[in-house]
User: Which sequence fits this backbone?
């Protein structure tokens, strides 16, 4: 039987989702597979929708695994959570057809990047947001973001070590907004068919420079047209990045949850 799970985690203490070579590093995948193995009474191999980097969080990660063990959905959830650390939780579980694949069946993925804008660095939110001491103009950032909508070659926004065969991606939505009593939280919500390695963080780096007035609005278009990572902006830190949702064909019945508001 194939089981799909919804997983959320605080990635601050992890070396990313994926188990590293020779088992090095503390990965979310490793902890989840260990927990599920205890419930299934056999080794478990999981597949995820998006391999988040070190320090990156998720509120809507989707995974699947195969098992001959017969358990109710509630049993998978409660059993796994009993063996997981406090910063990882299985939210739901459901059986799916063998045609479902957490990664290859996904049609769209959605991320939220949270910037905390104030002159002094935060304490409690230090590894859950990205601190920005500069004053950012989100109207300028939104205008620049319009150049990135649609299908483009995002070579300028991919990491040097990105292993994707094609740099072409389609961005369906890229929206900025403010929250908080003084508008100190800036959210960047982006949805695309798929993402390149560091793509969101590199987009944030470009838009932040534009929002701070260090670059013109048109610079976003120029960086895109360069198709050269060396001519792009800085890579924003990982801590403000959250995988918040993955969309699949309706036939699989996978929940598509909106991102939680948390403190912002």
Assistant:
């Amino acid at each position: 039987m194939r089981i799909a799970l919804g997983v959320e985690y605080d990635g601050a203490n992890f070396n990313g989702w994926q188990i590293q070579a020779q088992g090095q590093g503390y990965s979310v995948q490793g902890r989840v597979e260990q927990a599920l193995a205890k419930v299934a009474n056999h080794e478990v191999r999981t597949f995820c929708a998006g391999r988040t980097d070190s320090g990156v969080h998720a509120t809507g990660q989707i995974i699947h695994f195969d098992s001959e063990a017969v358990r109710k959905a509630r049993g998978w959830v409660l059993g796994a959570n009993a063996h997981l650390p406090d910063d990882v939780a299985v939210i739901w579980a459901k059986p799916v057809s063998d045609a479902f694949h957490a990664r290859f069946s996904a049609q769209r993925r959605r991320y939220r990047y949270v910037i905390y804008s104030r002159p002094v660095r935060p304490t409690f939110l230090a590894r859950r947001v990205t601190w920005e001491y500069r004053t950012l103009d989100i109207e300028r950032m939104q205008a620049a973001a319009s150049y990135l909508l649609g299908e483009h070659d995002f070579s300028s926004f991919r990491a040097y070590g990105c292993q994707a065969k094609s740099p072409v991606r389609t961005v369906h939505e890229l929206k900025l907004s403010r929250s908080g009593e003084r508008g100190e939280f800036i959210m960047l919500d982006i949805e695309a068919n798929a993402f390149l390695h560091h793509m969101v963080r590199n987009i944030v780096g470009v838009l932040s420079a534009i929002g701070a007035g260090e670059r013109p609005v048109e610079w976003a278009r120029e960086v895109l047209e360069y198709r050269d990572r060396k001519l792009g902006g800085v890579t924003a830190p990982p801590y403000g990045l959250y995988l918040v949702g993955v969309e699949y064909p309706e036939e699989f019945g996978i929940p598509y949850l909106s991102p939680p508001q948390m403190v912002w």
